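User: Can you write out an input/output pair for a complex, sequences first and structure second?

Assistant: Here is one pair. Inputs:
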Amino acid sequence: MAIIRDMIPAFDLFQPTTVDDAVALLDEHRGQAWVIAGGLDSYDWFKDRIKRPGVVVDLGGIEELRGITDAQGGLEIGAMTTLTEVVNHARIRSEYGVLATAAEHVATPQIRNQGTLGGNISQDTRCWYYRSGWPCYRAGGNTCYAAAPKAMNREHAIMGTNRCVAVSPSDTAPALVALDAKMVVRDGGSPRVHDAEDFFIGPAIDITRMTVIKPGDLLTAIHVPAEWANAQFYYEKIRDRGSWDFQLVSVAAAFQVSGGTITDARIAVGGVAPYPVRLDAVERLVSGTSGGESVATDAGELSIKGGRVLRHNDYKIAMMRNLVRRAVRSVA
Amino acid sequence: MADKLIGTDIAPPDLVAKITGRARYAEDFRPDGMVFAKLLLSPMPHCRVRGVDVSRALAMDGVIDILRAEEVPSREGPRESCLTDEPHYEGEPVLAVAAITEEIAAAAIEAIDVDFEPLPFVLDPLDSLRPGGPTAYNGGNYFARLPDAESGDPSVFQDFKWTEADFVEVDAGRRPSEAASTRSWEKGEVDAAFAAADLVLEEVIVHQSVTHHPMEPRTNMAYWENGKLYAHVSTQSAQATKGALAGAIGIDADDVVVIAEYCGGGFGSKIAGSTVMQIPALFSRKINRPVMLRITRYEENYVGRARPGFQAWVKMAFRNDGKCTGVDLFIVEEGGAYGSGDNNTAGNIADLIYTPQNMRFRSVSMYTNTPPKAAQRGPGGAQIVSMLEPVLAKAGRELGIDNLQMRLINAPGSDATMGPRNGRFTSVHAIEALEQGAELFDWAGKMELSGRREGSKVTGIGVGLSPYTAGSIGYDGLMVIRPDGKLYVHQGIGNLGTHSISDTARPAAEILGLNWDQVEIVWGDSSLGQPRSSVQAGSQTTHAHTRANHAAGMDAARKIRAIAAQTMGGSPGDYVLDNGRVFRRGTSGMALAQIAERAIQMGGEYDGHELPGDIHAQTRPAAEMLAGEGLMGVAKDNYGRSGSTYSFVAGFAMVELDHETGVVAIKEFVAVTDCGTVVHPRSLAAQVFGGCIQGMGMAMTQRWVFDPQYGVSFANRLYTARPPGFLDMPEDMKWGAVGIADPQSPVGAKGIGEPPVGAGAAALTTAVADAMGGICLCRTPLTPDIILAELEGRAPAFGRLDQHVG
């Protein structure tokens, strides 16, 4: 079969208006249905004719999936809330600034107007071997082209790999891990709630998926708990150009600071693994300190322990170390 | 000349259509019965089609037909056909399918089974130069025309290889031997200059290959009517495309009508249309229906052309006073599937901007199995200034001389010569551009900040000088003043957004004393009558067609004055032209509308029934068609010229380099140009900034990545190819123009499209080197990973000379 790109094949389109209808449709078409939020990841797959679902369930008409509400002292963000709404929301900006900043670093204003928070954290990896339709592990094959000795893997992972070396592309994922967010997932039964750091999975758990979402599942909301509101935050994303670019490495950090001392911390790094990497050991290291230069340096060095480089991505070690150092340094 | 119109901001006539979306590009046309074509592209960098089974595709509802390589004109040697059974790059079109919808055509492509035989391929020219290394073509890697044509086929492929000894040198970071080049020239006493030098710098340099990626992909639609081909083409040039398309498919140019009112950019990749424009023309002839070939962004990545990459060794000699006294340059060029000649221009431009008087140039351009290369805005020049300006700055640092002084000491003046034949120039005001730019940029103030460290951020300051050819001569102007009193200027140049389609008409309006609302531009449809015109490339049009329209305007003015004198008495020289009238001082005279009527009555040369003997054969039919419609101005540009016309841009940049992340932020940028008389300031600013920004992208972000094992490309979408975006640019950008008229043009204007690219790129490569304490990475793009590796003292992840790593 010859290859052709940039032409979306036909599919059956369903546009439910309630979550219950959406869940029922996903159940009815289990294994064939593709859920579409803002469509920015999905349409790329469809245009390339690599993912060819027979049924597409478009969540765009489900009002109950949109909007940001106060919940249990924290916030409940509907999965279909646009990234622009996240960026502009007054409470997110004032109390959970790390999320607003991370969302603001997504691509371009047009993409943020169209893209949703649920879509941003559910999107597939951008490994170009995989996205080009090569029959790799993640695509159900039995090799990883990106890990081959001569492969072009500048953007790929330095940790958390298992056969596949692709990275999580989401900008908001590290921020949500830093905020200890909870993802609410529906299927036929009652809602399940996943901690953010468990929501994103690596290839060791399932090499064909980036998150816990399985066929039939629907991500409905992201809960941001009160515990980390108004913490001291740090976010930084390194990319090749200033817009419409995925991260090379990013860091999102939340620090509880009392009297100049870090009492608790949550730090996550994006772009270095198939999932946002939570730095538990670094968090323990910095807790009880004031985040000065020498702690920051130690934190940076600790963060990269276990990192393993491919042919073209060893710069990520230095970049990750330095970003973690900067995050810790920001407290002082 | 500078009067009412030259040098003022006038909105181009297509502005409203463009911003309201009413402008119709090639893909916006839908003639009755039109079908869509889709392409089957080669999945491998080099292969042969052993067999094709189209039966399933042809059986599909809505599929009309298939066009195969054997049905299109084939070309021998390394010349491109629009379809081929032996693709030489991944993405090369193999066949086309036509169907009643694009969706069906795409599905039909997938239903075709092709048996491809993979063949050896090469991506990096150095791999092809290695003894025993692969070659891009079955017969070799180098296409030579032999002096002995006895065999009847003087053009043959050969294997051109370096020796093991060359590679011992190259692998050790040194240059290969003399014999390792296929092109060379030398001037002055090069070895003596190096022997006498106070400072010799030697660098190994890699410049990446980058795709053109114009906003509008090269979409084309064609149909035939009464034996004539009507082609809607995405092309930079209008009149020149007619002959190019006719020649490519073997028909008479008189049987082609090219409609090309708008073009969404080309940057040199659509100079006279494109290779794929043949496909709808030939397919439409075969199936007798209009055929639309919409090229997608993905396809554009492959068939859309690219700037060739360089791997180069440079040695520069300097005196203690900063003067460069010798340049020894060796370039290996990645020529792609069908070759490239940027290296030659690069050699000449290196000679021009450093005025060494002693120069040795050697190069070899290798065919490779990557998408075809073509001129890209400042071809050869942009690469070489981006690569060499940091070396000049490094010399200044070692000699204790300010970088701007180094630039000024070595800048060419109007007496400069270039290349092995010591070509001369009509005017050179590079020094004035540098001085004006330095003032606008506050060079002295900025240099106080050079090397300043705030936290992890270090400030770097850079300057680059970029020249490029800026005008041709000898084309025709054609215009008619009709009885409605308006001047209709027939333009055969293209409309790719530079505004030259209207701006080059200004000299005629100026000569004829017309206000701009009395001028209509006729363009974009060859059936409306187009004079012989330059291609809209190589920064030619502003120069060539202000001159041609000046000549035709003078011709019209002469005729108007003759008619006025005949009608109202006196001698022609008594009459002046102003505000749409011709008159003697103190009289009201006649309106040009009346003159036009009178011209039609008088006939002969006045209304174009008699034409000048020296106009081009391609202008004649257009003029004959327009004869009798009013007073005709028609003339060839016979103003002549001694020397080449070149424009210059001096670029200045201030950057902040974050030493912890390798990220470069461009804080301020200034560009000042020597492009002669300024015709349209606002449009000039757009050209200067646009070109500089393109160069900044080339220096910093844009790339092309190939998997070396499989030979296929990855950065084939805009977001992965990474042309620069709005947020990559500084908020503070300023421009200026020297504004000294070129003495060898009656208008004084020189072209500007090309040279800003090198200025934008070189200002940045130099500023980044400054922010690194003078370290020249001598590699583009300067992405954070590469910079960080250097700052951390780690060896890069790839070979020093590796190409296509992004």
